[in-house]
What we know:
about 40% helix; binds pyridoxal-5'-phosphate; Aspartate Aminotransferase, domain 2; alpha/beta; 15 helices
Amino acid sequence: MTDCSYHMTPGQFREEGKKLIDWIADYYEQIEEYPVLSRVKPGEIRKQLPPQAPEKAEPFDKMLQDVDRLIMPGITHWQSPNFFAYFQSNNSGPSVLGDLLSSGLGVQGMLWATSPACTELESHVMDWIVDLMGLPDHFKTTSSGGGVIQDTASSAALAALLSAREKKTDFMCNQTGDTSRLTAYISTQTHSSVEKGVKIMGIGTDRLRKIDVDDTFAMSPQALENQIIGDIQNGYIPFFVCATIGTTSSNAIDPVRLIGEICKKYGIWLHVDSAMAGTAFVCPEYRHYSDGLELADSYAFNPHKWMFTNFDCDCFFVADKSVLIRTLSILPEYLKNEATEKGAVIDYRDWHVQLGRRFRALKLWFVIRHYGTEGLRYHIGEHLRLARLFAEWVNESSAFELLSKPPFNLVCFRHKKGNASNKLLMDTLNQSGKIFLTHTVLDGTFWLRMSIGQTQTREEHVEKAWKLINATSDSIRE
Ligand code: PLP
């Protein structure tokens, strides 16, 4: 026997852990001093790393020094209040601590039996969210449906696609693998993750119909129905439609009720993706944008975008959990246990693609309890107010124009000078390191996207950004 051990002792963990928490707290205090967008060139980080893994153990302090020296220059600061790019991937103190606790417990919650609290807290928090966001009651686990935390909206869309396929084929596709006549429907503005899901499930993008949008970039229900009718006449089997509340490019809102009625008429699964905008429904005055959601078979939004919960955390709800479970359930001998066999519990491994799962409900539970409904409404409401304010400034300016009044927290705007000027303006702003924003192209026109949703973003940051945008635009000579 040898008592040799390279493991970190609980005492060392306590000591180093405190240093790391201090390091993160210092980082948050100093975050605005970093350039928001990392300035390193491709390969620059990697070439500084040793070619081989170390033979000898190294002290934790040295690792933290290397984080400062090697890693920080290659970080784009998503948690900076001056981050207005893409859609946010924000976090908060309670969320980081919840995630740390999840790592500390190191639970793998594939079955109820592998840690009952992991499953039961998740079901409970997901039911809370149904009330918190004013979602249809049948999304509750205590009803016909239920919620599960998926890693991403992409995985949620894949689970929805697979369930839709099985429901439409009386659970035969899982056996025969014959998907040859199935057709799926999205709009030209739907997030690419749904197209990816279609590729993964073997439907083939030839049978993915991209429906036209109207002048607000929302899916045209008439065009959808015409396409469905045409496909049925040609012997195809429409099985899945995805509607979006808050598209990625411009936050367009598909008419969920009208699309839902079409889906009911033709027996098609409706998935609603509200990955970013879904968080706005914590504010009751925004819930009219989810009108018709009770017609959806599945729904997803990402607290890991805007609801102060760090990546990864997607809330996926289904109206009828039996379809999802029947689609994904598989019970090998080595996973059999009494609780599962009695059917008395939820085994979340049957609710998504992978088997193993982290205890993600902890961070969501901590966030909801830390802020309370009141706190969430206040901060999300502030972001929404700041987006309206920014849009007003754009509207009042003679140099810039708005795409449309922002329904949520994304403002699409542009300088009136044209595409090349706007691209140059965006690149110059991002190179300044003071803010970071990204773009989209709609009908050939380049639009700047100002997404206001970082946890710490306040009016002063938005005002500073607007002044910087104006000053930079004035200073650019083309
Ligand atoms: N759906 C929409 C509307 C999105 O904007 C995004 C990402 O920005 C996604 C889906 C994909 O999100 P995830 O990274 O969680 O898969």
